[in-house]
Fold each of these.
Amino acid sequence: DWVCTCDAPATGRAAVAASASCVLDECVSHTGCATCVGPGGCGAGQVCHDPDQAAATLSDWTCACEMPYTGHRVGGPAMCTAADLDECTTACISCLAPRVCAAGQHCVDPEATHLSLGDWECRCD
């Protein structure tokens, strides 16, 4: 009987007398970007995500900038720009401010920019 296997860099389960089940996570095995410095071909301070790891879908991977920067790009390193960051909002996932103010207090971030982190404070209501 004949056996189908996945061609590198795809990985998966070989099959006897049938098609192999192959996946290709382009963030792990990306080789098309000679100038990229980060994982998966993304730049430093960026996260790679391959939304469809079917071996037949290529170049759909994305790079997204990590906080406090914003930006994303499909198929290459993102252009990251500084984002305003209110540490008191629930949108600031990595910030603890909304969870540490006691009852009867509220959070205030006097300078909500990416250059001014850790300056939030709790004030009495």
Amino acid sequence: MIVETLYMGNEKDVTVVEETQFHLNSQLQHNQVQHDQVQHDQVQHDQVQHDQVQQDQVQQDQVQKEEPTSMSEATQKQTSSSPHLSLVGSRLTGAQLQQAKIFAKKHGGRIATCFNGSTTHIIVNVDENGRCTRTLKYLQGIASGRWIVDYQWIKHSLENEGQVALPVSMYEV
């Protein structure tokens, strides 16, 4: 509009200015539509991410509710009809693995060869300083909040005359 006033004397110049203004307005409208679409896409993307985070949190909360938080809860779950005690050995000898199988059977559980979502305890050997080898199973157990337990828990529980496993907290690594 200001440009129009400057070129009022020449009709050809006014036409060029009007065409330029029309082109600029068209480009501005196109840019506004693109901007609105990007904003709309971003809002949708943020909503999808928010929904996924909420869904993941609900699933994580459900898993945490199902996991035993103490040995007494683990023992209670072991006596139910389906086995909830799921042991995984890490760097155990053949004889230790056999003892772990006996322990698992005695307490209504099972022993698995690989860490999985139902694993409740990782059984490890510890040295004189109370340290164990940091294996993949060990790290998976830590990352998943599972019990990391010295093999002595299995051994002493089997030696114990009672039918109940010794408190796992005494053998936690």
Amino acid sequence: NEFKTEETHQQENSGFKDQNESGAQNLPIRAYLDQTVVPVLLQGLAELAKARPPNPIEWLGKYLIDKSNK
């Protein structure tokens, strides 16, 4: 099956650690996202709600790209 649950993916990769990986890359999926993506995404969603642009997905995409470059 090409679609795997998060648990299955973690089980399959639980013993694999690349020597070049460090910090956030070694965290479980939820912790990784909570530390790296969620804060910026929530900030973007708050700004999106204030701006209410006619093209919210495009607006949010540009917002995230802009934040990733800083």
Amino acid sequence: MASHHPHHGYTCITCNVVFAEAELQRAHHKTDWHRYNLKRKVAELPPVTAEGFRERVLTQREAQAAGGEDKQPRLCKICRKQFVSLRSYENHLGSKRHRENEKTAKPPDVEVEADLSELRNKKNLQLSTKQVKEVESGDKKDKEEEEEEEEASVEEKKG
């Protein structure tokens, strides 16, 4: 990620910048700008310059101050991802990965039913033999108690 070139200094290939000292390079790796470019790199997007990053931060702050940024979290049911802003959600909808997932997505009804079945299966698997026996014996006790209550009720009506 970072290297030293004797004639050029210390570089960050993620952000395409060169530093004269190693300490500056290490400090750079802790910045929001560098982290932002790392995320862009993972998304196969080109890095933004320091000035471009500052402009984006200012634009975002202005939008938040004006109430323009929608704070409602968005959920992509197809990719099963949550997004904190409308802009990130819209960017996701236009992404290559989302479009690929859309093509292979199951119809909503089938997907919901599959999710429910999966949850039921997991829950059932989590029950140990001991728990199953406890549940079964508890059911028997409940039935016995109900029968006793019915008998008592019948006896009261007779008497």
